[in-house]
Amino acid sequence: MIWLVTLLVALGTASPATAATLFVTNTKSASVSVIDTDTLEVIGTIPLGPGKPNRIVFHPDGKTAWVVYDKSHELGIVDAEARKLVRRVKIGGNPYNLAFSPDGAHVYVLDWSSDASDDEVIVYDIKAERIAGRIEVSTWPAHGVFTRDGKTFYVSSETAGNVAAIDTASRRVIATMETGGDAMGLALTADGRLLYAAAGENRRLVKVDTATNKAIGTIPLPGIVHDAVLTLDGQYIFTTLRKSNKLVVVRTADDKIVATIPQPAYPDLVVMEPSGRHALVSNRYANAVTVIALDTFKQVRSIPVGKAPHGMALRPGVTPRVSSRRAG
Prior knowledge:
Elements: H1 2-11, E1 21-26, E2 31-36, E3 41-47, E4 53-58, E5 64-69, E6 74-79, E7 84-90, E8 95-100, E9 106-111, E10 120-125, E11 130-136, E12 141-146, E13 152-157, E14 162-167, E15 172-178, E16 183-188, E17 194-199, E18 204-209, E19 214-220, E20 228-230, E21 236-241, E22 246-251, E23 256-262, E24 267-272, E25 278-283, E26 288-293, E27 298-304, E28 309-314
Antiparallel strand pairs: 1-2, 1-28, 2-3, 4-5, 5-6, 6-7, 8-9, 9-10, 10-11, 12-13, 13-14, 14-15, 16-17, 17-18, 18-19, 20-21, 21-22, 22-23, 24-25, 25-26, 26-27
């Protein structure tokens, strides 16, 4: 327990980064590529060791990044300033993804069923360095998102085709919304009133009213949808169609598709960089992160990274600037 407290205290004296950085996990290179979001160049590589590192998230203070290892079933903790892996932790049976509570006190680990665990969300206490709770959910929990106040955690369960709303105080599922297909990416509006849920095989986004936890509409898409990410101003939502090698952009004002952007090979996840000018997209089979200009909805760059990039996490600490963009 002492090691993490010591690490966080030491990191508190480090100088903050002057530019936003995007950490990209390369599953077949066992590394993180560090991208400067101003220059759109790789400025460093962090070795992660064996075990197939995949998803990555930052602690809200931006000092550490936490990585899921698919094969070794661990979490890795990276010192963001030193750009070094400092610890690996056994957490559960088959962890797939993770998310931090907004206060940074807990990391919620999405755990697929295995010989050692059920399909569940593991609540890990950062300070105490122990599992503080387990919340059973439907099969293959895949993506998760917190409301800004941290009171609710939404989890999509891929093979079950649903989204669970978890009350974080009681650590209980309080509602389950059927989406159909394989439920994947989740995007929550800034005001927290509307949740977009990707229903992959059903080729649609499902819109959920968070006040009632009821579906209120759907948005058809021209392919199997994986990720769903809102632009910083909330005017558009980007969706990845991995098997079709496309990005589809939907205008949220009227739920109309306004752009279809070809991608090189298996686009996975999308991150909006803090200036509001670009979307960054991991393309797993192209070994690249593509850059999409939000004023034109066109690809303007491809950034070579390691082999099989998948997970992406933007380091906190840079205030997003919402820029003007096309009206559609």
